[in-house]
Amino acid sequence: MNRCIFNRLMGAGLAVPLGLSLALAMTPAAGAKEFRWASTTDPQTLDPHAVNSAPVLGFLNNVYEGLVRRDRDMKIEGALAERWRPLGAGGWRFHLRRDVTFHDGSAFTAEDVLFSYQRASAEEADVRSWFAPVREVKIIDDFTIDFMTTAPNPIFPGSIANFMIMDKDWAEANGTARTTTQAETYATLNANGTGAFRVAERSPGVRTVLEPFENWWGEREHNLTRAVFTPITQQATAVAALISGEVDFINPVPLQDVPRLEAAAGVKVQQGVEARVIMLGFAHKAETLKFSDETTESNPLADVRVRRAIYQAIDVDTLISKVMRGNAAPASLLVSPAMHGYSPDLAAREPFDPAASKALLAEAGYPEGFSFGLACPNDRYINDASLCTAVAGMVAKVGLTAKLNTMPVRQYWPELRADRFDMYLLGWSPGTFDAEHPVRFLLATPNAEKKLGSWNFGGFSDARIDELLPQIQRELDPDIRQSMLDEVHRRLQAEVAYVPLHVQPLVWGMKQTIEVTQRADNFFILRWVRVN
Predict the structure, then answer these.
(1) Under DSSP, is residue 471 helix (H, G, I), strand (E, B) or coil?
(2) How far apart are the first and last CA of the chain?
(3) What is the CB neighbour count within 10 angstroms for residue 308?
(4) Cis peptide before 252 (omega within 30 of 0)
(5) Which pLDDT value is given to residue 168?
(6) Strand 249-251, strand 498-511: pairing
(7) Which of 216, 200, 98, 86 is nearest to 152 (CA)?
(8) How confident is the model at residue 24 (pLDDT cuts 50, 70, 90)?
(9) Would strands 329-330 and 207-212 be described as parallel, antiparallel, or unpaired?
(10) What DSSP state is assigned to residue 350?
(11) Dmax of the chain from CA atoms?
(12) CA angle 393-399-403, nearest 5°?
């Protein structure tokens, strides 16, 4: 998929389908099959409230379920809740599905929803920002529960599509009533959900085996008897495994190997557009640089002139053509054109201008530049390490020395949470498909009590954005709401809070006999997989 095709897929705003549903629902085939798939990133935990990242949430969507879920086209539909309605005082009432059981046979009730909310909204939970608008959760009866919000919140059901429900009794019996990212617990290695698949075997970093849950409440659309996931960090190894038949599916396909797979017998490549924007973040709140050789008494990255100098030193068109091989589109905001709340009038990026970069650095007091640390994962995003290497080479041309430190994503997130970076690479795909999502997670001033800014690693803070966020969350008039989001986007650009780079493509490889649904959130949903 070259850039021209990518741009046509992106289209103009919401005229583009939010999901690329490339397989239609079918009735199960007579012959059921084993399915083997591989990806570069192993989910670092099976605890659905411990880590708010796509590899974890996408994987666990096969095992756990929420009150609502997204269909093939990213639209919200019922899951453990059959229906829901807004409450006049500010809140939502969910009517729960009856006769649902967890994988161990225990019954699902509103008690499990309340327990899961308390667990997922606790201070140590990485997903607690989802519940920032919630002031109270009340059980009405065994199959009715109210989520009361601080104000009317029209997007609330969609904002909790990845809120997964745990069995209260199972969690308490196994000492995992609270989540943690600091240690291994029973819930890290074991799972007891209500989803279409149950965990039969878990060896972190080696393989995870899932089997269909025979008592699942939903309609079976797949024809799988067993699904075996193997993390393969070396992309060349994954490609070889697909061609040889060792695995049936890989994600992602290295961009340089797309022609090879397209020419291989019995193999096909499925391509689309992901919702994810790839960006660079800064250590805004740090008093000094942590990894500079010579600039140890100050933090130049706290100066907007320096951040803009870095922005204008990066040639995104070259990154896309060379590193991404034409398979991406430039980004100017933290959301793509396919998201609700995108601002078309702010689509233009600042120009690539090394001379302007040098002038800004001199104006800020760094005419000779400086060195700093650039942290990047090497197995999380498409060509992530190569992307950071190219960025380091570009900023070097204006006198900045980026000391690159790449690492596996299992190590990367703890490093960012421990503030061991000066600048870092991040990708963000809004779980709500709404621009409010990155405002809440990436731009809001970090505040544990208010459950805000949990992925704002650099500590960016803007009082006006903090003021606008609750208004955006409760505003019912779409034009007024968009005007507030436009203001947030303009402030993001004016302050260079992040440097958006590109919208990432979806490139999956599989045997010709495999049918899958490719969603724009890059979640791989097993209940839609068929082996012919």
Answers:
(1) helix
(2) 26
(3) 21
(4) yes
(5) 98
(6) antiparallel
(7) 86
(8) very low
(9) unpaired
(10) P
(11) 71
(12) 55
Within 10 A of 487 (CB to CB), how many other CB atoms are there?
15
Task: Please give the structure tokens belonging to residue 471.
Answer: 């208004």
| Count of beta carbons in the 10 Å neighbourhood of residue 490 | 14
- Percentage of the chain exceeding pLDDT 90: 82
The stretches of 90-231 forming alpha helices (DSSP H) are 110-120, 156-159, 168-173, 186-189
Look at residue 371 and give its three-state secondary structure.
strand
Inform me whether the pLDDT recorded for 418 exceeds 50.
yes
pLDDT in tens, 169-211: 999 999 999 998 778 899 999 999 999 999 999 999 999 999 9
Cα–Cα dist 307/282, whole Å: 8
**How many angstroms separate the Cα of 246 from the Cα of each of 239, 249, 270, 509?**
10, 9, 19, 13
Q: Kindly report, residue by residue over 485-515, the tens digit of the pLDDT.
A: 999 999 999 999 999 999 999 999 999 999 9
**Angle, to 10 degrees, between the axis of helix 354-363 and the axis of helix 304-313?**
160
Look at the block and give the residue holding tokens 């309605």: 85
Contact present, 65 and 194 (Cβ < 8 Å) = yes
Residue pair 273/20 in contact (Cβ under 8 Å)? The answer is yes
Q: Are 190 and 210 in contact (CB under 8 A)?
A: no
Q: Are strands 530-531 and 91-96 parallel, antiparallel or unpaired?
A: unpaired
The pLDDT-based confidence of 11 (bands split at 50, 70, 90) is very low
Assigned token pair, 264: 């291989």
Q: Is the pLDDT of residue 375 over 70?
A: yes
The first and second tokens of residue 21, run together, are: 């549903």
Give the pLDDT of residue 27: 39
Nearest to 391 by CA among 506, 499, 254: 499
Output the pLDDT for position 2: 54
What sign has the CA pseudo-torsion 216, 220, 225, 231?
A: negative
Rg (CA), the chain: 23
Residue 30 pLDDT > 70: no
Sign of the torsion formed by the C-alpha atoms of 469, 473, 474 and 480: positive
Q: Which residue has the tokens 């500590």?
A: 459
Tokens of 156: 């609330």
Q: Which of 2, 38, 472 is nearest to 255 (CA)?
A: 2
pLDDT at 410: 87
> What is residue 9's predicted lDDT score, i.e. its pLDDT?
46
Which segments of 323-446 are extended strands (E)?
329-330, 371-377, 401-407, 423-428
Bin 6: left if φ > 0, else alpha if -120 < ψ < 50, else beta: alpha
* Residue 33 burial (CB count, 10 A): 18
Q: Residue 457: how many CA atoms within 13 Å on its side-chain side?
A: 24
With bands split at pLDDT 50, 70 and 90, how would you rate the model's confidence at 31?
low
Answering whether pTM is above 0.70, one says: yes
